[in-house]
Amino acid sequence: MLRLPARLALVAACCLQHTYAQTTPSVCASADFSIQPAISVGPLTVRTLVTETHICFEVNMASPTAKWTALSLSASSNMINEPNNNAVIFDAAKNTAQLHVLKGYSSAGVPVQTDQSGLVVKKTSSANGVLSFTFERTLAAPSVYDVDIDPAVPTNLLWAYGNTAWPSFHTERGAVKLALGSGALMDSAPDAGCYGTTAIIGAITFALMALLGLVATHAGSGWRFINQRTVFPPTQHRAPLPWISHAISDLKIGEAIVVILYVACVVAVGVSVQVTFPTASASRLASLVSGHIALVALMFLLLPVARGQHWEVVFGTSHERIIKFHRWLGRVWFVAGTVHLVLTALSVNVTSTNLYGSQQVVPLYGFVAFVSFASMALLAIDYIRRTYYEVFYYYHRVVSVVGLVFALLHSKAVQYAMIFPLVVYGVTYLFRLRTYFNRYATVPKAHGSNTVALTLPASAQTAKWVRTSNPCAFFWINIPQVSLLQWHPFSGIVTPDGQSISFRIKAHAPGSFVDNVYNYVKAHEGAPLTVLVDGPHGKPAIDVYKYDAVVLVAGGIGITPMLDLINRHRQQQPTQQTKFYLHWVVRAADDLLAVEDLLFPLPPGVKATFYVNDGGTGDSSVQIYTGEFIAYKRGKPVLDEYINTSRFHEAKVGVMACGPPRLVQEAQWRSHNCCFDFHKEVFLL
Asked: What is the b/e burial string over 485-502, where b = at least 16 CB atoms within 10 angstroms of the residue's CB?
């Protein structure tokens, strides 16, 4: 609270200033003012005259559509500064010019300045499509919202205008530097924005992830706690929200560390945005933070879809195992992007093509990108993706390009952030182009159980795949006679002679890709089929030859990766002591014959038990191509009889499973209870 002497001094100063203003001749009335040159400042022209203590501005804008125009003398080229600046806004409808404080980017964030004494308006007019206003002020800042003017030093001039009635968002804005004493004009410094910071934080985070991945993969291959232990134990029975419970139970400690690093990255980005924009309102800050969180998600979600063996080198895993991060990041992006869109829409027309805010974004481009990515997220819902996979896949292919293009056009920050992900994806895509040279002509065979057998002719390439690919590897296959565009992943099976790769693909639904292949093969029996092959891909989570025993649990066509493992063992059995125990359950006895040429006779070191769950009673047998009869049991395998510590006393045991979710879930649960390392073969891409 001011004391009496201070109050008297303040009143006296105000009176002296008022008296001085009345007695001092107006700069704008000087004869010299009219002969000063008019300088183009964007679409405006500005005429100035400086005296020892005052300056006069005349601002003109020729526009038949403009409803208001504004000029601000600012500490920087930013519209929003700390402390806040003000601007002179001329409202053509009211023919008035007033000072407004620039507190935010919305019209609500530009309130009328309470104290208008620092502005002396000399003339205003709006006629014949020309908006004009003339005002005078002191060189010394008349209020806390003004800046001091040094005629010899360039001053930041911010301009804007709007084609809709004030208050409204500007149609266009800009900034220049003008030496008010000499009239020398230069470009203003670009807006301070958070353009590259998010990209740098994301790059540092990924580099740290990659470094830890290399250490865990190559120096810490025996770190079971990191590479095998899961964060939460698996459940024995079906959980209410399987997409959450399964994801958590599959998350290994090493993967959880990656997630923690990502969360730290998001926090760091949020802090950096807050530091960069300290004066932003709560809603504006939330909009900026959510936008940059969405950008971080976009950066990282593109990486897992870049198929290639680089993931095996860096993280010791493969594409189909990290694709879950793509789905998770997609959900993060959707939430953050929705928040960003809603908060932005409160202050700006999201269909505007004008640059907006300190980030200089184009709202329309961001809106198109959001609609593109959001529609992709909706089609990625599990039921839709599995039921209409082709629609989901090709919609993703096309619309992702649209979304990325418009996201890049939306903001410089996006352009900087997406350089590395796009380079990684582009390089891996170039490597995948060689796929089109991996063409094979094979004579397929259709099996009665809606299964097609495709065996590639033996060649130097197939022999190389046998030698160099990982066990349980899979390939992406295209069959031009059926579809020029569709590529689908299938387990590659080493043939018993170890010279080539075979595939067994089964149709599960009418009209599906495999169903179309099956019908084509049936209709063109004996005719050669062209097969394009992209691969090999995939790496098991366990090294099977480091175990004394490996239990293989398969259901239906889930036998295919196990067959590959068995036939690899067939070639290496003299040097390998690992014992394999196969438990394979099918719906009909005839299904056992779909892979008879690849499985039988069983190699030494492999013990197999077969199950037929057809509702019948009593064990039976089926005759294979060699004339032998293969016995099978009725019903499902009782896994607690085969996955337990008493059966494998003091042995190092690994378990692999592929098949129906409940069968795999039970195998995983029992493996966890026995502290056996577990690998789940999945193709939920």
From this structure: ebbbbbbbbbbbeeebbb
Of the CATH numbers 3.40.50.80, 3.30.460.10, 3.40.50.740, 2.40.170.20, which one belongs to the domain with range 544-680?
3.40.50.80
Q: What Cα–Cα distance (Å) separates residue 115 from each residue in 13, 17, 111, 146? A: 16, 14, 12, 12
Average pLDDT rounded to a whole number, residues 335-343? 95
- With a cut of 70, say whether residue 10 has pLDDT above it: no
User: What SS3 state is found at 277?
Assistant: coil
CA distances (Å), 628 to each of 65, 371, 596, 598, 624, in order? 91, 60, 11, 15, 6
Q: Which of 363-367, 399-403, 622-626 has the lowest mean pLDDT?
A: 622-626
Q: Is the pLDDT of residue 569 over 50?
A: yes
Label residue 17 by pLDDT band (50, 70, 90). very low
Report the C-alpha gap between 144 and 147 in whole angstroms.
8
d(CA 244, CA 222): 29
Task: Identify which has the larger pLDDT, 346 or 165.
Answer: 165
Give 626: exposed, middle or buried? Use CB within 10 Å, 0-12, 13-18, 19+.
exposed
Give me the helix-helix angle, 319-345 and 282-302, nearest 10°. 160
Chain position carrying tokens 């092959």 = 533
The per-residue pLDDT of the chain, averaged, comes to: 87
Locus of tokens 């098991």: 540
What is the domain partition of the chain in residue ranges? 26-187, 197-433, 438-537, 544-680
Enter the tokens of residue 109.
């964030």
List Cβ neighbours of 107 (8 Å cut-off, separation of 6 or more): 166, 167, 168, 169, 347
Query: What is the rounded end-to-end Cα distance, in angstroms, of the chain?
Result: 69
Whole-angstrom Cα distance, residue 424 to residue 307?
Answer: 10
Look at residue 244 in the predicted model and tell me its pLDDT. Answer: 67
pLDDT at 242: 62
Indicate the pTM of the whole model.
Answer: 0.77
Kindly tell me the number of DSSP H helices and DSSP E strands found in the chain: 18, 26
